[in-house]
Amino acid sequence: MSKRKIVTGLFVIFLSGILFGSAITGLYIRHKIRVKVNALISGDSQVATELVMHRLCHSLSLSADQERAIRPLVQRAVTRVRILRAKLRPQFERVFLEALEEIKRHLNNEQKERLDTLARRIRKGLSFPKETRRGLSKKAKRQGK
Question: Which of 42-46, 61-65, 109-113, 122-126 has the lowest mean pLDDT?
């Protein structure tokens, strides 16, 4: 075998290793992000606290003593934000769904279908209760909106 074939073969193996490694790393990172986002959406306060603490420690170069003092404050704040979000969620859902109905009045049929698809994705991410999704839409139609 010539030297050129050996070098070419090694180069192809090296290149395929880089491509495979990059693809696996990309999938792993996407998976890790998805897990954290799902945990945040589901209301996992520990994940939210860890994300905030990581950011604070990294950005502010906190000492171990500072981290120990700040962590309970962050945990308390995360809990308070969760409570506030739970209280405001029904209002947010109502505003979101009413806006969709108003927007639809200005769209053609194809655009309405695409908006419905987009809204389904958003609702899935926000996990609105089914009765809220359907109920407001029917109510808006009855009112002539």
Answer: 122-126
End-to-end CA distance of the chain: 77
Structural domain including 2 reads 1-42
Tokens of 42: 């589901």
Looking at this protein, which amino acid is placed at residue 11? F
Q: What is the pLDDT of residues 36-65, one digit of tens each?
A: 777 766 667 888 888 889 999 999 999 999
Here the tokens at position 144 are 């002539």
Q: In this structure, is residue 23 part of a structural domain?
A: yes
Q: Token match 């506030």: residue?
A: 84
Decide if 92 is inside a domain: no
Which two three-digit tokens encode residue 106?
């200005």
Question: In the numeric block, which tokens belong to residue 47?
Answer: 């994940």
Domain count, the chain: 1
pTM here is 0.52
- Residue 128: exposure state from Cβ atoms within 10 A (0-12, 13-18, ≥19): buried
For the record, the structure tokens of 145 come out as: 């909106």
Q: Residue 17: is it exposed, middle or buried by C-beta count within 10 angstroms (0-12/13-18/19+)?
A: exposed
Q: Is 129 left (phi over 0), alpha (psi -120 to 50) or beta?
A: beta
